[in-house]
Amino acid sequence: MFRSTLLKQQSTLLTAAMRPSLFRPAAARSVMAVRGFISQPPGGIVGTVNDPVAIPPPSKTHGSLHWTAERLLIIGFVPLMVAPLAGGALNPVLDGTLGTLLLLHSHLGFESCIIDYIPKRVYGPFHNLALYALYAGTATALFGLYQIETKDIGIAATVGKIWHA
């Protein structure tokens, strides 16, 4: 082949390779399409630099009280996790308490993830949809724990059977 023909082919390939759509994966394009639902101001700033920051109203479900309640929940796990290992199966009340605390701990963790990664100001109704799905899943899991406790051998004994299987 002639050198001029090769140069033309290389420039065509180079032009095709430099298209921005090739560098942006399909998943990123679909996420960018979803973000267009709620228009955001540039930089996420509303007002001017001289406007005071809006202080949110106080809430008992946020802040240090919420954090303290979560830490107490975690501390409550310690004896409930050690007891089945030390002495075998728990009685039904402690076994149910272990299951309920574990479910509550998981619910609070997933709720924090939803609040952090699916913010209402960006995703709008999808934030509420994710929270409703979490509440439905938690209620279903609570019903399942109730069934295991009342009609089966309990959570600690079930985990023990799976562990020794």
Automatic annotation (TrEMBL):
<feature type="binding site" description="axial binding residue">
    <location>
        <position position="105"/>
    </location>
    <ligand>
        <name>heme b</name>
    </ligand>
</feature>
<keyword id="KW-1133">Transmembrane helix</keyword>
<keyword id="KW-0999">Mitochondrion inner membrane</keyword>
<feature type="transmembrane region" description="Helical">
    <location>
        <begin position="129"/>
        <end position="146"/>
    </location>
</feature>
<keyword id="KW-0809">Transit peptide</keyword>
<keyword id="KW-0472">Membrane</keyword>
<keyword id="KW-0812">Transmembrane</keyword>
<dbReference type="GO" id="GO:0020037">
    <property type="term" value="F:heme binding"/>
</dbReference>
<dbReference type="InterPro" id="IPR007992">
    <property type="entry name" value="CybS"/>
</dbReference>
<dbReference type="GO" id="GO:0046872">
    <property type="term" value="F:metal ion binding"/>
</dbReference>
<dbReference type="GO" id="GO:0006099">
    <property type="term" value="P:tricarboxylic acid cycle"/>
</dbReference>
<keyword id="KW-0408">Iron</keyword>
<keyword id="KW-0496">Mitochondrion</keyword>
<dbReference type="Pfam" id="PF05328">
    <property type="entry name" value="CybS"/>
</dbReference>
<dbReference type="InterPro" id="IPR034804">
    <property type="entry name" value="SQR/QFR_C/D"/>
</dbReference>
<feature type="transmembrane region" description="Helical">
    <location>
        <begin position="72"/>
        <end position="94"/>
    </location>
</feature>
<dbReference type="GO" id="GO:0006121">
    <property type="term" value="P:mitochondrial electron transport, succinate to ubiquinone"/>
</dbReference>
<feature type="binding site">
    <location>
        <position position="117"/>
    </location>
    <ligand>
        <name>a ubiquinone</name>
    </ligand>
</feature>
<protein>
    <recommendedName>
        <fullName>Succinate dehydrogenase [ubiquinone] cytochrome b small subunit</fullName>
    </recommendedName>
</protein>
<keyword id="KW-0813">Transport</keyword>
<dbReference type="GO" id="GO:0048039">
    <property type="term" value="F:ubiquinone binding"/>
</dbReference>
<comment type="similarity">
    <text>Belongs to the CybS family.</text>
</comment>
<keyword id="KW-0479">Metal-binding</keyword>
<dbReference type="GO" id="GO:0005743">
    <property type="term" value="C:mitochondrial inner membrane"/>
</dbReference>
